[in-house]
Fold this sequence. Notes:
The chain has helices at 2-18, 30-56, 66-86, 93-132, 161-169; strands at residues 137-140, 175-178. The longest helix has 40 residues, at 93-132. A two-stranded parallel ribbon has the order 1-2. It has 2 domains: 2-91, no CATH class; 117-178, no CATH class. By secondary structure, the chain is mainly alpha-helical. The protein contains 5 helices and 2 strands; from the N terminus they run H-H-H-H-E-H-E.
Amino acid sequence: TFIPALFLGISFYLLGKKINSLNLVENFRPLKDFFWSILLIIVTVIMNQLLVVYALGGLSPDRAGIASSVVIALILVRYLFLLGNYHQQKHEVVKYLIVGNVIGLVFLNIFYFGVHQQYAKAVDERIKLILKNDASTIVVEPLPNSGYLYSAEITTDTTNFKNTHLKEGLGLKNNVVLKN
Length: 180
């Protein structure tokens, strides 16, 4: 959520810097507004999760966070636009911070590239093994660390949603479980 929102926000920061004639920053205080933005993000996430948990009676699926993600992106874009409008040319350090963040994100992705590549290869090998196997219950090895990607790891319980979803998705007649 934060990485795409920050990339989107950087362009709005630069847009806010170009549009200094609007004078949108009369009451804008960067630290105070940053605090309130973070507080609003926390309240939004908590309220969204509480509503979904109450409605479902249990933990929410990952897709339930989409509304929170959109609100977080909008809050970050708004804050960075106002921050760009607030900063004048004397605040050149912000450009260096933005460039530093982008470089940091690039190195983070370079670091995790190998982890993600190993994970993707292990998933492909697992699917090939499952499709070739004719046992009544197919037992598979655990997947390696998935990095910051969502892991598709199954469980030892054949009735678990992930296990049944994998079974139905591959059109199998046999159960698939994780090795203990």
